[in-house]
Write a structure and sequence with these properties.
Rossmann fold, about 325 residues, binds 2'deoxy-thymidine-5'-diphospho-alpha-D-glucose, about 45% helix, binds nicotinamide-adenine-dinucleotide
Length: about 325
Amino acid sequence: MRLLVTGGAGFIGSNFVHQTVRERPDTQVTVLDALTYAGDRASLDPVAEAIRLVHGDVADRELVDGLVGEADAVVHFAAESHNDNSLNDPSPFVRTNVEGTFSLLEAVRRHDVRYHHISTDEVYGDLELDDPAKFTPQTPYNPSSPYSATKAASDLLVRAWVRSFGVRATISNCSNNYGPFQHVEKFIPRQITNIIDGVRPKLYGTGANVRDWIHVSDHNDAVWTILERGRIGETYLIGADGEQSNKDVVALICELMGQGPDAYDLVSDRPGHDLRYAIDASKLRDELGWRPRFTTFRDGLVDTIEWYRANEAWWRPRKAATEARYAQLGR
Ligand code: NAD
Ligand code: DAU
């Protein structure tokens, strides 16, 4: 299979490319990535000889049309992905997440190429902390931030292109990922690298907000499962029953890194901060037989901490600028 992977130099995309090269050596991978602040060629160094990397923008319709025309399938990871940044400047989110998806959809329509769209559980808004409900494929869209609104818009474009033009697409909406190669702006890597630097972790608000954590390898296994066996036009939710409050996650990181359980600082909250996400992945489990491999969050976190300790050369160049951006936001 000739596979076009957008955003393959980012966190989830680079893990997907590594996994594909390792487990599916017959797949010819082309990565299209704009190498924004969030993308890094170095994340693809371990597989550089086995893939083609094209430095370009998913919203560049001519470039995208040419690359899609050479592919059998597209997996679209490329996005502006960080909520805090979207609150500061939404414009790149609209361009990349909405216009970029539009440009891919037009190309897959023209060339009749199979398309898988990577999305997020944040399109559903949030749940109350004490509500036993989880997100299902029937939950109405209700995004809170500019980031999640642009992801919701891109999902709706995909649904319309399936229905109106017969595009062969599937969509997945996944919960919070963790693992190697995640940018230090995100919650878990930020706290791990802060502790390595002798700085206390930073918890927004009271730390009561809940996220549903999944290891990035489990997310990417699910993406391959949907690409190969998912029903065209369907939406699959991906999650591994990993609900944890932010406070509990920080306490566990502190414990695993030899700090006291409350050796963190409470900082000002994110505006519009979603309270809780929780995924019901029964459709993916029951229809397609997918199961997560990293069954305990603790084991996955131990591996992740170890990875950041061993790969300081990868994250160090971005740490100071990231913390300077947070300092401007008072977080
Ligand atoms: P990331 O920010 O780490 O990586 C995004 C990648 O896209 C980077 O390599 C960046 O250079 C590239 N990119 C950005 N704009 C581009 C453009 N205009 N053209 C081409 N490439 C561009 O993001 P991530 O965390 O790996 O997320 C990947 C996808 O998964 C996104 O679509 C995100 O919405 C979705 N998602 C993420 C999570 C999570 O927990 N991180 C959970 C569910 C869904
Ligand atoms: O749910 C899927 C989404 O998960 C993806 O669509 C997004 O791309 C991804 O960034 C992530 O969004 P979140 O906003 O949940 O992730 P973030 O890592 O920014 O924050 C996780 C939680 O931790 C959130 O409740 C905010 C909080 N937080 C974050 C940072 C950076 C802190 O308490 N302290 C911090 O320093």
